[in-house]
Write a structure and sequence with these properties.
hydrolase; AB_hydrolase_fold; Dienelactn_hydro; 6 helices; alpha/beta; Dienelactone_hydrolase-like
Amino acid sequence: MGLMNIMLFHSTYGLRPAVHAAAARLRDAGHEVRVPDLFEGHTFDTVEEGMAYKDEVGKDELLKRAVLAAAPYSDQGLVYAGFSLGAATAQTLALGDAKARGLLLFHGTSDIAENAAVDELPVQLHVADPDPFESHDWLNSWYLQMQRTGADVEIYRYPGAGHLFTDPDLHDYDQAAAEQTWKVALGFLATL
């Protein structure tokens, strides 16, 4: 319990002000936070532009950048966190890091490797309900698969919120859902 070392990954929009604001909120709560720029300075105004860039760079290269960003700190026991695409990245890294302390997912999940196994890794997911990228069927399957890995999973759903509802600069923003998300997420971090 106490200070966590958090690796916070941005969404497909890139490293925008909302990600820095989220990092500041976590730092204000006493945590150490790093926000790697997997898009190397590129930011986007639409999901489509961000996805096109992600596809251009390639999933393997983005994952490599994420691993290189986290590697110098992983011995400390990181909490991996991220928004949407960044959540998927955080999940992949956390499931592959035996020293991971926790996984905090905002607006996204990822496929789970068949052989993934963790020792009661605390996982918290915050997601819109419904979410265009995270269907109920997918989330139910994801939840069961994550439990099979050994993770201790909590899912918080926010009815009527947009996909990236914690980002005040986007149309998806939902202030009430965002504030509730941060309250619950900070409580989760305090228990690790």
